[in-house]
Amino acid sequence: MSAQVETHTHTHTHTHSEDCDHDHDHSINANANASSETETETETEVVSEQDALKASRTPAKALLSVADLERWTTSDTRAAFVAFVSRLNDAAKNKKLRDDLFVSETTQRILDLLDACEAICADVRPSDSGKSRFGNVAFQQWFDKMQEIAFPLTNAIVPDALDAHEISIYLINSFGNRKRIDYGTGHEAHFIAFLFCIEKLGLIGEQDLPAIALKVFWRYIGVMRTLQFTYWLEPAGSHGVWGLDDYNFLPFMFGSAQFYDHKHMRPKCIHDPEILEEFSKDYMYLACIKFINSVKTASLRWHSPMLDDISGVKSWQKVNSGMQKMYLAEVLSKLPIMQHFLFGTFLPFEASGEMVGEEDELGHVHALGQERPACCFIRVPSAIAAAADQGVNVAREFGMRPGMVGGALGGARPRPLPFD
Predict the structure, then answer these.
(1) Rounded CA gap, 301 and 86, in Å?
(2) Which intervals of the chain are annotated as region Disordered (predicted)?
(3) Which pLDDT belongs to residue 327?
């Protein structure tokens, strides 16, 4: 009897213990679930906060009207941007592209970044566009791949993630418009903004500027030539040119600075084919003239009358001074260009109101006061594509070795020619 009672008591005690254990497990699970939910909510809040910070550091358009443009022309931000361009111009004076210049670790990383962007072209070949002389849609694939690597490449130069995010947006907008498959001086200005931000962080200084102007910027132009040859980017702007060669302006400014005190060659030397052939590897200006001659028929007088007129100026000092004034007037003070420019922490400017209007068929929202046809309504075919259509091997005419694209303009990687 005693044994039975003891057994019963033991059994009862064991069952009670199991119930307690079950209740304890249930409590632990409930607490774990609550903790997990709390952690998830916390993580969500952190992610939301990070997204908000990221959004607040994403550059945006701010020149929405003619009134905004007028405020921009007298703003401190424009003055700082112009001063940076001027310092780059001064840094290029009386120096050659192949001079042995100081290249810091940061400068080298920017060069590596440009190499990486150009290397994508090897994986994204142009699609068959038939006889079209307009932009090749494969550029959009290239753009997407470039956009994927823009942040990590920038973050390798700029340690702070939020700073790198903001600065990478300027880089992304340096290579042309994805939807319109075009490129112009506004995109060129975004690359200068990319460099401006890096300098503003103190990552490059005065000692770096010669290499930034003559190595980095020229390497960037080389990448752009690669993209132009490969994907036939259209010139941005309905007039065909806001730049001096359909695409760019600053190579002519910095290029004229290279000749600033040259004792022998005068501006009229651009008409001498032998000088172009011999010295285009050392001077941006001559390389750009050679590029124009290679993709356009007839004489410089017919297809580039402004450059032809400039060649009549007596000194390079006057050419350089005129280029700086022209850049201010024809690029940084033109609404069709500046309405696309992006502003943020490093380049602050407050818009007067919300962007008004709808995107047109080319993905373009026009600023208030900007007439549509004066901006980008009329598409302009690529002169490179036109030359290819006429049977001209532009890359060979431009002096590039077989299998090279961009080689004569700062490129250094082998590339299959986009056309034969």
Answers:
(1) 29
(2) 1-53
(3) 95
Residue 310 structure tokens: 């400039």
Q: Which helix (H) or strand (E) holds 171?
A: helix 161-172
Quickly list DSSP for 358-378: ---TTS-PPPBT--GGGTTSS
Within a domain: 336: yes
Phi, psi of 404 (to 5 degrees): -115, 135
Question: Three-state SS for 408?
Answer: helix
Give how many domains the chain has, as a whole number. Answer: 1
Name the E strands within 195-337.
Answer: 234-235
Tokens for 56, please give them.
């607040």
Q: Judge whether 230 lies within some domain.
A: yes
The whole domain housing 154 covers 62-127+135-352+372-409
* Residue 398 is assigned to a structural domain of this protein: yes
Q: Which residues contact 415 (CB under 8 A, 6 or more apart)?
A: 121, 122, 226, 230, 403, 404, 405, 406
Mean of the pLDDT values across residues 34-43?
A: 56
Residue 309's region, left for phi above 0, alpha for psi from -120 to 50, else beta, is alpha
Q: Does the pLDDT of residue 33 top 70, yes or no?
A: no
Q: How far is Cα 355 from Cα 342, in angstroms, rounded to an integer?
A: 13
Do 292 and 397 meet the contact criterion of CB atoms below 8 Å apart? Answer: no
Tokens of 370: 């900007």
With CA atoms as reference, report the closest residue to 345 among 149, 192, 187, 196: 196
Does the reported pTM lie above 0.90?
no
With respect to residue 171, please indicate whether it lies within any of the assigned structural domains: yes
Polymer length in residues for the chain: 420
Tens-digit pLDDT profile for residues 226-267: 999 999 999 986 444 445 788 899 999 999 999 999 999 999
Q: Which residues contact 101 (CB under 8 A, 6 or more apart)?
A: 95, 210, 211, 214, 215
Which helix (H) or strand (E) segment is 61 a member of?
A: strand 60-61
CA torsion 61-62-67-72 (nearest 10°) is: -100
Q: Name the residue with tokens 């941006």.
A: 284
